[in-house]
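Project channel, design review

CF: Before we commit to the Methanoculleus oceani constructs, I'd like one complete example in the thread so the newer folks can see what an input/output pair looks like. Taking Tungstate ABC transporter substrate-binding protein WtpA.
RD: sounds good, go ahead.
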Amino acid sequence: MKLTRLSAFIYLIVAAAVLICGCTGTTNTDSVPGAGNQTTTPTPTAAAAEDVQVKVFHAGSLTGPFEKVKAEFETEHPGVTVLLEPAGSVDCIKKVTENGKPADVVASADYALIPDMMIPEDADWYLTFAKNRMVLTYSNESMYADEITAENWYEILDRDGVRWGFSDPNSDPCGYRSPMVIQLAEAYYEDDQIFETLVGEHSEITVTEEGGVYTIHAADPKPDSITLTIRPKSVELVQMIQAGGLDYAWEYRSVAVQNDLRFLELPEEIDLSSIDFAENYATVRTEAKKGDGTTVYAGSPIVYGVTVPKIAEHPDLGLEFVEMLIGATGQEILAADGQPPIVPAGGYGDVPTALQSLVEMKA
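CF: and here is what came back for Tungstate ABC transporter substrate-binding protein WtpA:
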């Protein structure tokens, strides 16, 4: 009987010891020698809890400078990752306004798209922060690369075998601006057949004139894709130039600089770069798709805009990204990438207090 009681007592001691070891063995065993085979429950670190993703929807032509701003921003904000999502500016904005997709920053290659498409429902303010100009890009292998000039480019594009293109007027500001340049060229070069020869004969894009204003109808462009190619984003054409798939493509000067392309600068009267010729630019406009109908984009100097949408998940970080963009860091990056910054940035609407010292209020 005594032996039985003794055995039971020993059994209870062993069972308790096992239970205690089992409970302590699952906690913090990483520093215990020989604990590699034990099951551990990881504890989330403070750094992981602080990781934040800042989403930036931006025009494709801003990819180069925004990648540099992203790098600087992430260096100054440990635990923050900036996710850049390039697209045509119209498509960038539609992701917010039509699809309800959150973005902490939206940057457009045409500042006017922000008040037209986002204010007041999806944004309260916007800034103008950079300029650009339209150029005709090409490579050393492009047909007639050694002959093309600012005086004969439209004749070169019309030669047999030459392949050229621009982006989709329905999704990309560079796309609806390209035919504007071609239409403006008619008056400048005193040749009223330039648009029909280059565009009309190779697509379903047409032009009508009323009261001295030319409307380019591009809602359903249907290019022949032999002579004239149209792609959703202007940056897609860069790869085609580099690969030899196209001889020439209309781009922003900054895109040409950032991608080491050869490019032809055109007269300011037609390249949409100067406020001195704003009235002349306004004589052309492009009609493009908008929802089930159409909208009209008026010719104007190329000016970029940026805002933080109301739907932003991290609006404070969005503001800080914009602050860096329009401040000394962003200005230096934009200038180096061939995209002249507007200093100070122009402010419209209810611009947040945090940005007002860097902004000149316009309206």
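RD: helpful, thanks. The chain has two domains: 50-131+303-361, 134-298.
CF: Residues 2-24 form the longest helix (23 residues).
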